[in-house]
Design brief:
CATH architecture of the largest domain in chain A: 2-Layer Sandwich
Organism (chains A, B): Parendozoicomonas haliclonae
Oligomer: homodimer
Family (chains A, B): Belongs to the FAD-binding oxidoreductase/transferase type 4 family.
Mean pLDDT of chain A: 96
CATH superfamily of the largest domain in chain A: Uridine Diphospho-n-acetylenolpyruvylglucosamine Reductase, domain 2
Protein name (chains A, B): Putative FAD-linked oxidoreductase
Number of strands of chain A: 17
Strand content of chain A: 15-25%
EC number (chains A, B): 1.-.-.-
Helix content of chain A: 25-40%
Strand order of the largest sheet of chain A: 12-14-13-16-17-15
Largest interface: A-B, 97 and 98 residues
Number of domains of chain A: 5
Shape of chain A: globular
GO molecular function, one term (chains A, B): alkylglycerone-phosphate synthase activity
Structural class of chain A: alpha+beta
């Protein structure tokens, strides 16, 4: 069963938080106390009467409305834990076909509802949260459209229902010998339609591409009917409509079918963890490996604070002590940085990539490639989708953890990391609170890298105080991102939390073009209003007003 | 000096048309006679008085207006050779800065001009041709904005003036040890801004990507000011504005600066030509090599008719006879198909790619990899940008040659090739005229391939009759493309010639979205009207009307 107020399923094996890991957190942030948690029953009692009419496709029961009211952002967690939801959708429809989606859109237009398309509910940026408003809100969940509808093996195109979550995407493909290779951290719960709508990126994007490179076509249900995007390999026939659907976050229509480029399951795959003596060398190694186009499937680099924080949080003191002795003997000590990479492909490709990368690791003083690396890599692989469960572990002890991410060109990577980390470390200074933060590069490109920063802080004495701390932190790091010219999101999307910052990268004319598309597809602003693009008044609709 | 009525420059070494090649054409199509050609002087005399005011940036001289009136489509050639241009721009402005572009746009809005952005003038689909209309037409040529403005070596981002032609892109980068790697057939004349505006693809797209993958950001000058697109490696922050500029064909604004992802000049590069016993094997080899992600930089496959036609047109009878004997001895004879590929990268990458591809070639019965292949490959490389000169050679003898291209998924490739070739072969049956056509796959993707078909036919007794023949052929093959679900252009863009067919791949809702963007950026429809999107009347503007 999926948790109603936390990440994941109750039957998933979860990573433990050992006593020594907890000691590390306590020593870093100070002692803390957990906050009280509301029960599902208590929350259900708050759910007001639905403003939606009775309809065969619409479930208006309180529990279903609670379970679809929030995503996985930290404010969502505070709402779910405190029971203070603010508002709920008036009902949840779970269509099983594109026809039913169209029927629900038509109904919404006729009856003047707001519609929120809903995939896996894993948004960490407030994508799917209903807002207080006069109109009834219908959440349109795609959770019953989870099938592999077609697999064309010659063209390697698979057609999926939009609500197919990661494990079902891969299981259905694996039974035919194929893989999509899209592994976001949210893999266990997030859906293929959600990946498209929010321009998701998976851990092995270096081989398989981001969802933009996988999304070959599909269907978008709009108020004017179905926009069918054919799967053409490449085209110079005008602007690419797939790129309008990608990242549209439910504002232009509801994705009812997703066609993706798949690959035969690879002959070989391995993940390897190596350690570099310092950040500069780890960083240069990543840049070089990418710009040399070495066929890696994944490449990520933790800075020094993340490296030792991860070792502390792993909680296996003996093993970690052994590892550190081993590294010290090989000249990698204080300030060491962990780099994890994947090699995927046929035998020759794997051998060639290993040869190139080994040479490059040595040239930057990295160690671990042959002995330790593959072993630690296998541990990483085993636990790769379990990190989101750590939040619950810490929460129970009164600590909050959140992440943010951006991407910038290589020449701005280091100053941007410093800017973001400094903004977080100082954001709660006025309260005398310590913020512990660390960073890794999670996705690399020839021109630059994504930056993924994790931050831990002590909860306040109340849920409100905790939320106030988060608001300060979120504002500080978002401003830092924008000031360094980063995108407000490399892989989590815009939602409501990032919408105020979007204008800084899109510019006034870019924003005006996006607003114009939104008005074109949804003239009544009925689809997820306020997500992606902030609501603006008539007066603000001029180009300048948009900023 | 650039030719005013033909392809290229007079100081470029051109491929000869040998007597035996000409004999092949005569035997295939029948004898023909060349048509008379107008002189530049005669055409200049026809140029009417300009409707533009005097302005320091605008050249209204007849010769400049003639030289910017047409592209390189076959109808353009007929216009240039016959001297029957129909109409000319009223003047040509050659701005040197983005500020001057904005000044010219502002002037055009104030004085009610039509503006046609102009790059290298190499369009083969009527992108830059002025139309008969009441308003004065200003062609805005970017030919003076040809500099490498910045090269960030750490992030491998180069900034260019939009009018920089291929050889100047590569020469300026080469002097710093870099390459863009974008080599369309039009490389000698086409420009980096034109590549972006028309979604161009270069021969080595398998390594370097299409221009979509290279275009990192830049500036679009619009009537509302400058739209600045920052160079962010990847983002999930809403729809990608680069993808709105890419393929916009001058309809949304004028590209004034192009930032591209560049690569260090490769350690090694080689091109190899191999021969397969039949099309099925050549085709399967290409699909396999691509889907296995072998690191090739280029891969193209000629069908049997193209293979022998190329051998005949090469004109070296002795060498070809020797080659055919050699192939016959190795089991490759009648029906053989030529496959050309490139391997580019560092030493290990080249070695690994060679190993994988060699194994695959053998498994499909291909020959030539080790002995002959690299030699013929070097010949191909030497002449790779000279093919466009062949049109003039044939024209002089009364034969017309044109090409078309599309792309479809692998499962539709063969039926689409057959459909296109049949449509051409039968298009002039009513006149008893033979059409000789042949095809290659020019760009490959995991999901499918581009299809590039060349067709030769005999000119009519007059220029009008020749144009009428071309119209029949163009219509027939465009319908075949559309009926097989191909894109109306994989690499040549839409312009005016392909605009009527665009709706078949974009669909009514996609077309409506594009029209909506065009009205957003250019409410007076002043920028290149009729290009990309056909002009529609007020009544047709509803969604259904767009089709």
């Amino acid at each position: 069963m999926r948790y109603w107020n936390s990440w994941g399923h109750d039957n998933t094996e979860k990573p433990p938080l050992t006593e020594s890991a907890l000691t590390f957190v306590r020593e870093t942030l100070g002692d803390s106390q957990p906050l009280p948690e509301a029960t599902l029953e208590e929350v259900c009692k708050q759910v007001p009467e639905s403003r939606l009419p009775d309809h065969a496709l619409i479930d208006k029961s309180a529990e279903v409305r609670v379970r679809h009211a929030r995503g996985q952002s930290l404010p969502d967690w505070i709402a779910m834990k405190s029971g203070d939801f603010g508002c709920f959708p008036d009902g949840v429809a779970c269509p099983e076909t594109p026809e039913q989606i169209r029927e629900l859109l038509e109904l919404s237009r006729e009856k003047d509802f707001i519609v929120i398309p809903y995939g896996g509910g894993t948004s960490v940026a407030g994508h799917i949260n209903p807002q207080q408003q006069d109109k009834a809100v219908l959440t349109l969940s795609l959770e019953r459209m989870t099938r592999l509808l077609d697999l064309n093996e010659e063209s390697q195109i698979a057609t999926f229902g939009p609500g197919t979550p990661g494990p079902m995407v891969e299981a259905q493909l694996a039974s035919r010998g194929y893989t999509l290779g899209h592994y976001p951290q949210s893999f266990e719960l997030s859906t293929i339609g959600g990946w498209v709508a929010s321009r998701s990126s998976g851990q092995q994007s270096l081989r398989y591409g981001r969802i933009e490179q996988m999304f070959a076509g599909g269907r978008l249900e709009t108020f004017d009917g179905t926009m069918d995007i054919p799967t053409i390999p490449a085209s110079s026939a005008g602007p690419d409509l797939r790129e309008v659907v990608l990242g549209s976050e439910g504002r232009f229509g509801v994705i009812s079918e997703v066609k993706v480029r798949v690959t035969r399951a690879p002959e070989k795959e391995e993940f390897i963890v190596v350690y570099f003596p310092n950040w500069e060398k780890a960083y240069q190694f990543c840049r070089e490996a990418t710009q040399q186009k070495i066929q890696l499937s994944m490449l990520r680099a933790s800075n020094a604070v993340e490296t030792w924080s991860q070792l502390k949080l792993a909680g296996h003191d003996d093993l970690v002590a052994w590892l550190e002795r081993y590294l010290r003997l090989r000249g990698v000590d204080e300030g060491k940085c962990m780099v994890t990479f994947g090699i995927t492909g046929n035998k020759i490709q794997v051998m060639a990539a290993r040869g190139q990368v080994h040479k490059l690791i040595r040239s930057y003083g990295g160690v671990g490639m042959t002995g330790l690396g593959p072993k630690v890599g296998r541990l990483w692989e085993k636990g790769r989708f379990r990190y989101p469960y750590l939040r619950e572990n810490l929460w129970k002890h009164g600590y909050a953890v959140d992440t943010l991410e951006t991407s910038v060109n290589w020449d701005k990577t280091n100053t941007t990391i410093d800017g973001i980390e400094n903004s977080l470390r100082t954001a709660l200074e006025d309260e005398g609170e310590v913020v512990h933060c660390f960073t890794h590069l999670s996705h690399v490109y020839t021109q630059g890298s994504s930056i993924y920063t994790t931050y831990l802080f002590r909860m306040g004495k109340t849920h409100e105080e905790t939320l106030a701390r988060w608001n300060k932190l979120k504002k500080a790091c978002s401003i830092a991102v924008v000031e360094h010219g980063g995108t407000i999101s490399h892989q989590h999307g815009v939602g409501r939390d990032h919408a105020p910052y979007l204008k800084h990268e899109k510019g006034p004319l870019g924003m005006a073009a996006l607003y114009s598309l939104s008005e074109h597809f949804d003239p009544d602003q009925r689809l997820n209003p306020g997500g992606l693009l902030e609501e603006i008044t008539e007066n603000e609709k001029s180009t300048e007003g948009a900023l």
